[in-house]
Write a structure and sequence with these properties.
The complex is a heterodimer of chains A (about 90) and B (about 140). By secondary structure, chain A is α+β, with helices and mostly antiparallel strands. Chain A has a single domain, classed as Ubiquitin-like (UB roll) (Roll). Chain A has helices spanning about 30-40, 45; strands spanning about 1-5, 20-25, 55-60, 65, 80-85, 90. Chain A has a five-stranded mixed sheet, covered by helices on one side. In chain A, β3 (about 55-60) and β4 (about 65) form a beta hairpin. Chain A is globular. The mean pLDDT of chain A is about 95. Chain B has a single domain, classed as Cytidine Deaminase, domain 2 (3-Layer(aba) Sandwich), CATH 3.40.140. The model of chain B has no long low-confidence stretch (mean pLDDT about 95). Chain B contains three helices and nine strands. By secondary structure, chain B is an alpha/beta fold. In chain B, a hairpin with a 2-residue loop joins β2 (about 25-35) and β3 (about 35-45). Chain B starts with a strand and ends with a strand. The relative contact order of chain B is 0.23. The chains are: A alpha+beta (about 90), B alpha/beta (about 140). The interface of A and B includes residues 45, 60 and 86 of A.
Chain lengths: ~90, ~140
């Protein structure tokens, strides 16, 4: 299976300014890991030290948040679109 | 570098004072040319961290997703965010760093006893190791 993955503006410097990429994978997790392997500098912005998706990284498959699907195990069909959407968080202390 | 109008800074300060002792937050939209971000619009956002609004802020992905869709195909983009630090200096906290994205500009305003003070702009290093001050030009 292959999916089109849309790269948000802050991560495009790590993908040669490409706005979208075609990547192989049967699940969301596989596609994301393929992305991180091909563009290594991007990896630490998506995954923490334990290899888990950072909690401010939100993944949508065809506009559906994967938290309401099967998370990283969400199956990918050909021509699916995957979007990486930031949440913005922080605070004084 | 980021370029803002002096009026934008005043607006951020006013918002920060209005939300004190809670943190304010919002989106900066603008154009990007030769690596220079020029802010054309400030969009205040409601702080979604209702459990701890005095020292945390959150802008949800739904808001950003909708905004990205509106901006798609235009010459404008989300270029950064602003938030306040009530009674704490306008420097990124460890929590700010842990949750930050690269490339974006993060404008922080300090609010002391309800009065907005220093405003600084920061950018996360590409390796996530620290924030650096990013030049902020007022026009």
């Amino acid at each position: 299976m292959s999916a089109t993955i849309f790269i948000p503006t802050p991560l495009r410097p790590f993908t040669g300014d490409q706005e979208s990429l075609e990547l192989e994978g049967s699940t969301v997790g596989e596609v994301l890991r393929n992305l991180a392997e091909q563009y290594g500098d991007l990896k630490k912005h998506l995954f923490d030290e334990e290899g888990k998706l950072r909690n401010f990284v939100n993944i949508y498959v065809n506009d559906e948040d994967i938290r309401y699907l099967d998370r990283e195990e969400t199956a990918i069909q050909d021509k699916d679109t995957i979007s990486i959407v930031p949440s913005i968080a922080g605070g004084a202390l | 570098m980021i370029r803002l109008k002096s009026a934008d800074i005043e607006k951020i300060k006013q918002i920060a004072q209005k939300t004190y002792p809670h943190e304010c937050c919002g989106v900066m939209v603008g154009s990007v040319e030769n690596g220079v971000k020029t802010v054309t619009e400030l969009i205040p956002a409601e702080n979604q961290r209702t459990d701890s609004p005095a020292n945390r802020y959150l802008i949800t992905p739904d808001l950003l997703n909708e905004l990205e869709k509106k901006l798609k195909g235009t010459d404008r983009a989300i270029v950064g965010f602003f938030h306040s630090h009530p009674d704490v200096p306008a420097r990124p906290s460890t929590y700010d760093q842990d949750h930050a994205w690269p490339w974006y500009s993060y404008v922080i305003v300090s609010v002391s006893r309800g009065q907005a003070g220093e405003v600084h702009n920061w950018k996360l290093r590409d390796d996530r190791s620290a924030f650096d001050a990013e030049k902020m030009e007022l026009v």
